[in-house]
Write a structure and sequence with these properties.
The chain is mostly helical. The protein contains 30 helices and five strands. It is about 60% helix and about 5% strand. Helix 8 (about 210-225) links the parallel strand 3 (about 200-205) and strand 4 (about 230-235). It is globular and about 100 Å long. The model is unreliable at about 125-150, about 165-175 and about 620-629 (pLDDT under 50).
Length: about 625
């Protein structure tokens, strides 16, 4: 299993990015500097930061020339003043963990007191005191509090001031502006005394913070901490910064549309964009995760080093068992954790096949890849508990079903319905038909148009292809949290919606339920679409609902395709005289639009007399009185 945190090893081939960052850090001319590692959620920014940190530590093991500090922005989320919090956290880390600052603890404590005074201004603002109070010393603050506040409020503020002020002496020259200037100077003096070449501060998880915290953190870097001999590396999604800026500084006119871009450019001098993984990259990442899970650390390092040297990730080649064996030598149990060579080969091959389908679905996102594998391994473990005596249980079938679940959950649920409908049949008829069509290069018929997608076609072609002749009940049972097996659309209806739904279902006469269906849109406090979805869902398993479908078909054209799809799947034995007459009413609503259904029914070999009734254009044929368009 893989937990959601930075990796200690480079499975993403991010080493070149790490080398680039370290080379920049080592350049005296590039200082002070703020580097932005820009990438979307889950792309591996934290892992890249860890690689950079490891390379810095290798470059200076003594930590006396390059001091590297990691700060997690999320840790400051609960503070009233994130600027002061990040500054104090940085100073405390220097005081406690950095050899270069071992002899400078008194200087650091003095700077912490300076931060406390800066925090005083923020505390004043928190209580609603005029901004000028933040520029005053404590004596002036007490006077200001007397003028502007009630006794109760004044006591609360002064208590906060006492906590923050500590032992700071009264000095009328120590205004807020002056303290910012003094902090920068004293911070710079501290770095000079330490004799370090560079203080590298890496900031992670900024994109998990609220917009206010994002802005405060960036402003703390720009206003207080960006001095010579400092390099900030900020790992963040640029969209989060843009959203935060726009939230803090709303757009006034179209001329300010690029304000967020300008803001980022002002704070971050050197942007480095981390691209999403390509399909081949993601395939290899999934397979390397399997290697990480099974292969002993020394052997894994050997594999990764050799893959890096030969440039596999640059050639666009996909990793396979033969290549792994060539690199690490013959497969032996002692090279695998718990001597688990057999399981390794089995799961590697399963994921290798699944990766061909999943790579286009996970959107180049390493975190999503981990979650897919974690879910697969959890379900595999559950299968070993439930079906340990079932020698025919095939984990390849489980992986293929999971792939469809990730690609399109609705089609996954439709396949589940097909498996139930065909439970007594030798095949899942619809799936067999689709599989044969795509393998023969044929055109997917209109009734299966939802399956006419490049990713789904790739899924249908992937191994194992004989999914259609399997009893999939065991595999679907392991995925039941996604299926919501006991859930129906009607379960989500409100009390008023459920009453309307039941009145339609129970109504016997067309005139009665047709009026209700026609007027659904105008009924207040109900979502008519939910009621229609529930009725169509009921039609899946109850042919008697067909008269209600005729009414929906007439009044709600957006639902016609869904209704036609279900009608195309009606068994010819279900087409009685009553059903044929209702189908005729639907046909007459728009003959051309219904022609594809007529063609499917003819192919099924529906009785010619019934087809004559369905296709007649004379209203007298229908038992049901319908409204004409």
């Amino acid at each position: 299993m893989w937990i959601d945190r930075e990796s200690q090893i480079d499975l993403l081939a991010y080493n070149p990015f790490a080398e680039l960052v370290v080379n920049i850090i080592s350049n005296d001319r590039m200082n002070p500097l703020t580097v932005g590692l820009f990438g979307s959620w889950g792309v591996g920014k934290s892992t890249l930061l860890k690689l950079v940190e490891n390379k810095i530590n290798d470059l200076d093991p003594t930590k006396k020339k390059i001091a590297c500090i990691s700060l997690n922005s999320w840790m400051f989320e609960g503070y009233d003043d994130a600027k002061s919090a990040i500054m104090e956290s940085l100073l405390r880390t220097l005081e406690n963990n950095q050899p270069a600052f071992e002899e400078l603890k008194s200087d650091i404590k003095s700077l912490v007191k300076r931060v406390n005074f800066i925090r005083l201004g923020a505390t004043a603002l928190k209580h609603g005191v005029p901004l000028i109070m933040g520029l005053m010393n404590p004596a002036a603050a007490a006077v200001t509090a007397t003028q502007y506040m009630s006794e109760e409020k004044r006591t609360e503020v002064l208590e906060d001031i006492k906590k923050i002020w500590n032992e700071k002496e009264d000095n009328s020259k120590d205004t807020m502006v002056e303290n910012i200037r003094l902090f920068r100077k004293e911070f710079q003096d501290l770095l000079d005394k330490s004799e370090i070449d560079n203080l590298v501060i890496m900031i992670d998880d900024l994109d998990r913070c609220t917009p206010d915290r994002v802005i405060e953190t960036l402003e703390a870097i720009k206003l207080f901490l960006s001095v010579p001999k400092t390099t900030f590396i900020i790992a963040v999604d640029t969209q989060v910064i843009k959203y935060s800026v726009e939230k803090k500084y709303p757009k006034i006119s179209e001329d300010t549309i690029r304000f967020s871009d300008n803001y980022i450019e002002k704070i971050i001098q050197l942007p480095i964009y981390i691209p999403e993984l390509s399909e081949v990259d993601l395939k290899n990442y999934l397979l390397l995760l399997i290697c990480e899970l099974f292969v002993e650390q020394e052997t894994l390092n050997q594999l990764l080093n050799e893959l890096s040297v030969e440039g596999l990730f640059l050639t666009g080649a996909k990793l396979d068992l033969e290549h792994i064996e060539k690199i690490i030598g013959s497969f032996r149990n002692d090279k695998f954790r718990n001597n688990d060579l057999v399981d390794f080969k089995e799961i590697f091959q399963i994921i290798s096949v699944a990766s061909d389908v999943m790579a286009c679905t996970l959107k180049g996102n390493p975190r999503q890849a981990k979650r897919f594998l974690n879910t697969f391994l959890i379900r595999k473990s559950m299968a070993e508990i439930y079906y340990k005596k079932d020698a025919e249980f095939n984990y390849s079938f489980l992986a293929k079903l999971m792939s469809l679940e990730y690609i399109d959950e609705k089609l996954f649920k439709e396949l589940y319905r097909w498996s139930l409908i065909n439970k007594s049949q030798q095949y899942i008829i619809e799936l067999k038909e689709l599989t044969n069509i795509v393998n023969d290069g044929g055109e997917i018929p209109d009734e299966f148009r939802k399956w006419n997608d490049e990713r789904i076609i790739r899924w249908l072609k992937s191994e194992p292809q004989n999914l259609y002749n399997q009893d999939l009940a065991r595999y679907f049972y392991l995925t039941r949290e996604s299926l919501n097996i006991n859930f129906n659309v009607s379960d989500s209806l409100s009390k008023d919606e459920l009453n309307i739904f039941n009145s339609i279902v129970r109504a016997k006469r067309f005139v009665g339920f047709n009026k209700i269906i026609k007027e659904l849109k105008s009924i207040p406090n109900v979502k008519y679409s939910k009621i229609l979805d529930a009725l169509i869902e009921r039609f899946h398993n109850d042919i008697k609902m067909i008269e209600k479908m005729q009414s929906i078909y007439m009044h709600y054209p957006e639902y016609r395709s869904d209704i036609k799809d279900i009608i195309k799947k009606i068994r010819k034995s279900d087409i009685t005289l009553v059903v044929a007459n209702v189908l005729n009413g639907i046909h007459r609503t728009d003959c051309d639009e219904f022609s594809d259904v007529i063609a499917v029914l003819q192919e099924k070999g529906v009785d010619l007399n019934m087809m004559d009734i369905i296709c007649k254009k004379d209203e007298a044929t229908s038992f049901t009185t319908v409204e004409r368009k």
